[in-house]
Design a protein that fits this description.
Layout (H helix, E strand, L loop, with lengths): L1 E3 L7 H17 L1 H11 L18 H19 L77 H8 L17 H6 L11 H9 L13 H19 L45 E3 L1
Parallel strand pairs: 1-2
Length: 286
């Protein structure tokens, strides 16, 4: 079993090993496979077909498996590496340690938002954006969106979501106002609350993190490692609650066939949410 650490507690050597493993995975082509997969399974409320990765109860188990498979690929490159987490309620400015030149690099320059520092800057020659929804082969960021500032979620924002003892609720989509899943995934009602928690972090980083191919930015994995940890905290806070819906939706339900219940196999791995409820068989958090 391996351990996922807070990124701020990584040693210089651990950061270097992680960066090197990411670059090797990128050179092999495997990294872009994960970017493509995430883009393929980004299905919104308004689209037809199964909705397994986003705006849906299976948001958490699907991303847990996605992160596990990515971590397995990373550890095949270097068994000493795991995916750290970024607690954006604490490390909440562009000056935080994860944006340093020896780790993820910083924000994008004015104009085209191209990231110019760190090992994932296009100028370093190691990180072409090959799978994307917009033009441009370079990594882009706009940390904090200075021209129209957005703040990262606070500990209070997270606590409010974690305090909800219901996992998810009808209609199991981005419009539901009850339940931990959507409160933390962050599809809000509009106005200043349009983007909350998880979604607000994507918008705060900006650039590639704004779209369906958001894993193009390596910070995606650190963000979702923290989201996974928040799910664990919710489980511990509400031990008698659980994943919903527990049973397959009836044919009379308009979301039947689109929403994955506890025992429904999730593509592309054919594993159920039930099989992913317990993280302790795979890893632990420091």
């Amino acid at each position: 079993m391996h351990t996922r650490k807070n990124q701020r507690n990584l040693t210089s050597a651990e950061k270097k090993r992680l960066v090197n493993a990411l670059l090797k995975l990128k050179r092999s082509g495997r990294y872009d496979d994960f970017v493509s997969m995430h883009g393929h399974y980004y299905v919104s409320d308004g689209e037809d077909g199964p909705r397994v990765g986003h705006m849906t109860p299976s948001f958490f188990p699907w991303h847990r498996k996605f992160l596990l498979e990515f971590e397995r690929a990373l550890r095949a490159v270097d068994p000493a590496v795991s995916v750290p987490y970024w607690d954006w309620t604490t490390d909440n400015t562009p000056a935080a340690s994860l944006w340093a030149k020896d780790f993820l690099g910083g924000s994008g320059r004015r104009g085209d938002r191209q990231a110019m520092t760190g090992p994932f800057a296009h100028a370093s020659g190691n990180w072409n954006i090959n799978t994307r929804v917009t033009d441009g082969k370079f990594l882009t960021r706009n940390l904090g969106r200075p021209a129209d500032p957005v703040a990262l979620p606070t500990k209070r924002d997270v606590a409010k979501a974690v305090s909800d003892a219901v996992y998810d609720a009808v209609p199991w989509d981005s419009t539901v106002s009850r339940g931990f899943r959507n409160k933390i995934e962050g599809w809000g009602p509009g106005g200043p609350d349009k983007w909350l928690n998880h979604n607000r972090v994507h918008r705060w980083v900006g650039g590639q993190m704004m779209g369906a191919t958001s894993p193009n930015d390596p910070v995606f994995w650190l963000h979702h490692s923290f989201m996974d940890l928040l799910w664990i905290r919710w489980q511990k806070a509400h031990p008698r609650a659980g994943y919903l819906p527990r049973r397959k939706l009836p044919e009379s339900d308009p979301e039947q066939g689109r929403v994955f219940s506890l025992q429904d196999p999730m593509p592309p791995w054919n594993v159920t949410p039930a099989q992913l409820l317990d993280h302790t068989k795979y890893y632990r958090y420091a």
